[in-house]
Write a structure and sequence with these properties.
The protein is an alpha+beta fold. It is built from nine helices and ten strands.
């Protein structure tokens, strides 16, 4: 799994505030896992008791709605941490984290993280800033759901998927969400999402290759999403 001080998670997350000795302590107590595509890292209601560092792969953070639908709240990429809020509030996870592709993650126990919290002010500030950033994103998502059309939200989400997670060699989006998952992200019925994708395909914004999606005209898509 490599050394903590050379890890992408350390460079891109709250952990960048830790010094060499602290990183060595983490390396000694962490546990590394391979999570297969479709498997949970943790589920809603679980006691997480630490944080997970995402080294490779991507996962979805989702919540099961009362009608049994899986509502995606956020997608997580390499370099991010999972479970920070539950660990600090000492409450069960309010979301499930499920691998969208094969992943490598490291788990750091709560006792070790809280110890760093007490001793390293910059680390604790970084964690708080990350949680505040997540709250801001959640607020913006709520505003988008209430103020933007479904068409605008779909365009915005397709752009986000390409810009955040990249493309395969054939040009298709690397993170392949099901039509149901995509519909859940933009807050609409699966049938509406399928119909909109078909409309985007007809006017040349995207190309549908089976379940894969290829963005063909990013500029037009940005204009629809009102991202100029």
């Amino acid at each position: 799994m490599g050394k903590c001080e050379q890890c992408i998670v350390r460079e891109l997350s709250s952990l960048k505030a830790l010094n060499k000795d602290e990183l060595i302590k983490i390396a000694e107590c962490k546990t590394s896992y391979t999570i297969k595509k479709g498997s949970p890292i943790f589920e809603e209601g679980d006691l997480v008791n630490g944080i997970y560092c995402v080294t490779t792969g991507a996962c979805k953070l989702s919540k099961l709605s009362p009608n049994g639908k899986d509502q995606i709240i956020k997608l997580v990429k390499p370099g991010e941490l999972l479970g920070q809020r539950s660990m600090i509030s000492d409450e069960p996870a309010n979301l499930s984290a499920v691998a969208l592709e094969d992943m490598e993650v490291c788990f750091i126990p709560r006792s070790e993280v809280i110890n760093m919290f007490d001793k390293n002010n910059q680390f604790s500030m970084n964690v708080m800033k990350t949680i505040c950033g997540d709250l801001k994103d959640a607020d913006e998502h709520m505003i988008s759901i209430s103020q933007k059309t479904v068409k605008e939200r779909l365009a915005e989400t397709l752009i986000y998927l390409e810009e955040s997670f990249g493309k395969n060699a054939d040009g298709s989006l690397r993170i392949q969400l099901s039509r149901e998952e995509l519909a859940g992200m933009i807050g609409t019925a699966t049938e509406s999402c399928i119909r909109l994708l078909s409309d985007f395909n007809k006017i040349g914004l995207i190309e549908l290759i089976g379940k894969k999606i290829v963005i063909k005209d990013m500029n037009k898509l940005k204009r629809i999403a009102d991202i100029v």
